[in-house]
Amino acid sequence: MIPVTTPRAGRLPLWVAVGVAVVCGILMATQSRINGEFGRRLGDGFTAAAISFTVGLVIVAVIVALMPSARVGARRAVGEVRAGRLPGWMLLAGFGGGVFVLTQGLASALVGVSLFTVAFIGGQTISGLVVDRVGIGPGGRRLFTVRRVLGAAIAFGVVVWSVSVHIDPAVPVWLLALPFVAGVAQAVQQAANGRVAAASGSAVSSTLFNFIAGSGLLIVIALVHALIVGGLPPIAAYPGDWWLYLGGPLGVVFIFGLATAVRVTGVLLLGLCSITGQLLGSIAIDLVAPGVGHTVDWTTPIAAVLVVVAVLVVSLPSRVRL
To answer: Is residue 9 part of a domain?
Structure first.
């Protein structure tokens, strides 16, 4: 049984952790735009996702090789698993990140970053509330409160409204379902990352395990897809724009940041703060550098404001627990 615990103060003050989560959300929206465009230009979202995650793995591996504390943390995390104090599946939390990056490559360029983001938010919000209640995160079990449930309900209601307004008969329903599933996996990933970071004493070590698991998953998926369609894209098909290969480095930054912040915020508040950043970032991206055929209408800024309200509701203390 997972004990009910009261979240303890982490290395970061709450307001700093909230700010980190918002910035990470902006980086996630930026990564969605980059990976989506990379997959569109390459004509193969599976290979684009595998390349993005593998680039991130190389970066993290170099960082770990240069940081003795990160190497010690990685060994400590494995030791915690062997001792039975840390569930082994948490070292595979990077599967959730792999699913997220894969959906970016397959869906975001087709449905637009804003619509992709709100569909992702729906899964992340519901999953974050449940994950906190079960107690997967490093803060232990966080009981339902009226304000936490109300905040999650506001965020989810905004998502349902925003998606319903933007549904296009030309866009397959499964393209909206993919980011929703990725959002569910993302909340579990963030909680597990926090546990691994706490057990290892190093968020860098947690990030390493993420990229090992996610890269392995995406490489296998890309190879299976290549066998089905008759091969990987030829070298000439790879775009020459350097910024299309920044998805991996951005992932390194926000996975590290979220693994650090979740120890203070809990999964639900972390998710809602990163959601705020994702909405703000996606609106800015679709205004400044929209994908082909995608524009921002009046509903998206309203959705962003309402989700910020949901974050404030969840952040406020409440004595009524469910």
So the answer is: no
